[in-house]
Amino acid sequence: MQEVPEKKGPTAIILSLRNKVLRQILKEKTIIGIRPKLEGFRVTNAGCCGVGRNNGQVTCLPLQTPCRNRNAFLFWDAFHPTEAANTIIGRRAYNAHSASDAYPVDINRLAQI
Known about the structure:
hydrolase activity, acting on ester bonds; secreted; elongated; GDSL esterase/lipase; lipid degradation
């Protein structure tokens, strides 16, 4: 996952945050006080619905059967986090727990301005 420069605007900032959180989950660091395995991620090295090695080389195709327990997977396919992973990313973007979570402010603070 490559860092997106912050000079590209709000979308780039959110993508950069998303990539940072996903990297931390993969490294088993605590995210918002919860370890990935306790959060329910049992599969972090394969996609739930994809094609190729570890279901991670091509995106999920039409009529392809996804995994049964989607919340156990960190990635949906080669490019997208699962809903469970996006929930963690969204919580962190909305209510930052550290200065590096959102720049210059989190969404909660932005809504108050």
